[in-house]
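Researcher: We're teaching a course module on how sequence relates to structure. For the next exercise, students receive a sequence and then see the predicted structure as tokens, so they can try to spot secondary structure elements on their own. Here is the exercise chain.
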Amino acid sequence: MAVDCGSLSKELAPSAFFGHVKGAFTGADNAKKGYFHEAEGGTLFLDEVGNLALETQQMLLRAIQERRYRPVRIIAATNEDLEVSVNEKRFRQDLLYRLHDFGITVPPLRDCQEDIMPLAEFFRDMANRELECSVSGFSSEARKALLTH
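Model: And here is the predicted structure for the students to work with:
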């Protein structure tokens, strides 16, 4: 279950994560299961977790600590340095501790030149299928632009 944390307002986040019953608030026309319930026994991917409001971070931390849901594997991703966010009081240190069991740092492509062309070819092939095109290869100018950007 993928969650775009950047799109969750602090008002709607509790309902999105934990669900609600019909009539719980204005506009709640029916009951809704939250992300945690939908991901039970699976994985909850929190994309851009650094964008969550502090109130939502606290609720998330409580759900993780109290294990209110059957096992849910949580994978969190962000482009931010969460240590800096903790120092700036924008991210909870205790939540960072809970989420940071195993960290993976993905280096920028400028540091992995050998990956650029295989990725470009992969996305070209994908675009060819989706757009029903038959673009083949890259011109030397396009190749140079990709490798030096």
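Model: If you want an answer key for the exercise: The helical segments are 13-18, 35-38, 54-66, 82-87, 93-99, 113-131, 140-148. The longest strand covers residues 43-47.
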